[in-house]
Each structure stands twice: as structure tokens, then as C-alpha cells.
Amino acid sequence: MTDTSARTRGRRVLVTHDRLAENAIELLNAHDVDVFFSPAYAPSEQVAQRAAELQVDALIVRQGRVDEAIISASPRLKVIAKHGVGVDNIDLQAAASRNIPVIRAMGSNSRAVAEHTIALALTLLKEIPRLDSAVKAGSWPKPSFIGRDIAGTVIGLVGFGSIGQHVARMASGLGMTVILHDPHARQAIAQFGAGCERDLDSLIREADIISLHCPLTNATRNLLDERRFGLMKPSSFVVNTARGALIDEAALCAALLEGKIAGAALDSFAVEPPAKDSPLWAMPNLITTPHIAGVTAGSAKAMAEIAARHVIAVLDGEAPDEGSLARLTELAA
């Protein structure tokens, strides 16, 4: 997508991607905001130069890291809106030091991420990649294959916000047993069902599938490490559609190689894009997708429109939405 304007309006927003949903562009234009783009995952210095040249009033962050150089490039910058909810690619300290709010598009892609989580969990549970490869290689494993049942499988959700709650309902509908851990959502857990709550280590020991749905903070970084992989059942799986750094990737490789767990599915990675020579790629019991769980036609429109509305509100002099703010004390950049 090309830029939609040539500085014809009074205010400017830079999107860290080459496109934004048309509904959001139209909304921004209607509120006196021109929309400009930079390539996804462009080097910081390139994005900073573009922000400086344009003298942007706002950033909408889609992909790539937004560091201090970018945040300080335009003295007009008043707001950073995330096209989504994860903010580990934004330097929150640099934004806070300049009193620039970082605002998330809360709830915009929750169902999409939940659907992808369930899809990955079922793919692992039913061993579809292995069976697919075997048949295409000329093998016919039917005589020896015994599959696993979905009904009765215990899925442990770490994090019970909007996404976790969607996953829990979907999993329950499939006949799975849901257990939960989230010290910040105990009331929601109690409302979901009596007896579902576990401490983290107990959940890890009990679950057949461990699915991560918590934010990346200083407390949750490397949440699944060597010790916790050692607590898991050898027949269990890990699914991560949250933030990559929740998992110690070296420990995950070791757990997969040593048979401490049966497999894993990752939609996000500690560094994105991950290295082409990552040791993860040698793991036959690993499924990966390129951080697209929340990227559907519906969620893209919702994320873009919510981000646009946050930008417009702040540029119009309104206070940022309290429930959507990314707070430095809560989240890790």
C-alpha cells in the first residue's frame, strides 16, 4: 500500500508496516490525520529517519521494534498506539520518559488468537504433521497408529484474560477439562467453574496441553524454563500464542530432544523474525507459525480501527483510555 496523502492534513501518523485496514485510514483522514507507512521489520534507523522527516504526531505499531531512536525522532510525537495488545516490541521506558502514552487495542483479536490456539492444540494432539509427512513419504502408519481423544484431555491455561476465556469456552465445548492459573483473574476463574484454579507448578504437572495467555513481564519472562519443563508429563504439549520470551527456547529444545515433553506449537518467538539457523528448526515435534494468530480479516479491521480511535482521541486532547494503557510498572519492554 502506498501513502494515502502528501501532508495535506494537519496531523500525521506513521504505521510500522506497509498497510493498514482501509476503515482505519478513512477514519484517521476524516479526523485531519494523514497516514504514512514504513516497511514491516524495517531497521530502527530507517523508521526513525522517516518519523523525523514526516514530523509525526503519532505511531501505530504493527511489526518491528520501536526503540528510543524512533520514539525521540519527532518532537511532535504525542501517542503510540499498538495494532494489537502485546507491547514487548516497544521501549516503554523511552515512551514514559517523554510522557508519551502507549495504548493497546484491547480485545480486538481475542477470538482470533483463541481459535488459532485451539487449532494448534488439536494439530499436536492428533499428530497431524507426523502423519502427513509419513503418508507423503510413501509410508502407511495406519496399522500401528493409536490416536488420542480430545474429550477428557486436560488443557491448562496460564493467563485468563479475554483470550484465555475464549480458549476455555472453546476447549470446554470440545469436551476438554480446563484448569487455570492467573493470580490477577481469580474472580473470573471462580465464575468459570469451581475447582478449576491451580498454582502454576500444579497446573504444569497435571495438564496434557499447557497453553500460554499471559503478558510478557519481568515476572513471566522465561516462565517455562528447564525446571518447569522437568515437571511436565512426557506425553504433554506446549502451545504459545502469547509472547515468545515466555519460553526459554534453549530449555524447550532440550525438553523436546530429551523427550521430557511430546511436542510444542509456537506462534511467537523471543526474537522475531527468528534466526534462520535456530536450533528449533531441527525439532521434528515442533509446529510453528509466524506470529499470525491474531491476524484475520475481522481482527485486522478491529485492531486498526481501535488503534486509530486511540490516536484520534489523544491528538484531540482527550486523556488516553485507562484500561488500554501499557504501564511500565506492569509490562516489560
UniProtKB/TrEMBL annotation:
<dbReference type="GO" id="GO:0051287">
    <property type="term" value="F:NAD binding"/>
</dbReference>
<dbReference type="InterPro" id="IPR006140">
    <property type="entry name" value="D-isomer_DH_NAD-bd"/>
</dbReference>
<dbReference type="Pfam" id="PF02826">
    <property type="entry name" value="2-Hacid_dh_C"/>
</dbReference>
<dbReference type="InterPro" id="IPR036291">
    <property type="entry name" value="NAD(P)-bd_dom_sf"/>
</dbReference>
<keyword id="KW-0520">NAD</keyword>
<dbReference type="InterPro" id="IPR050857">
    <property type="entry name" value="D-2-hydroxyacid_DH"/>
</dbReference>
<comment type="similarity">
    <text>Belongs to the D-isomer specific 2-hydroxyacid dehydrogenase family.</text>
</comment>
<feature type="domain" description="D-isomer specific 2-hydroxyacid dehydrogenase catalytic">
    <location>
        <begin position="14"/>
        <end position="321"/>
    </location>
</feature>
<dbReference type="InterPro" id="IPR006139">
    <property type="entry name" value="D-isomer_2_OHA_DH_cat_dom"/>
</dbReference>
<dbReference type="Pfam" id="PF00389">
    <property type="entry name" value="2-Hacid_dh"/>
</dbReference>
<feature type="domain" description="D-isomer specific 2-hydroxyacid dehydrogenase NAD-binding">
    <location>
        <begin position="118"/>
        <end position="293"/>
    </location>
</feature>
<dbReference type="GO" id="GO:0016616">
    <property type="term" value="F:oxidoreductase activity, acting on the CH-OH group of donors, NAD or NADP as acceptor"/>
</dbReference>
<keyword id="KW-0560">Oxidoreductase</keyword>
<dbReference type="InterPro" id="IPR029753">
    <property type="entry name" value="D-isomer_DH_CS"/>
</dbReference>
<protein>
    <submittedName>
        <fullName>D-3-phosphoglycerate dehydrogenase</fullName>
    </submittedName>
</protein>
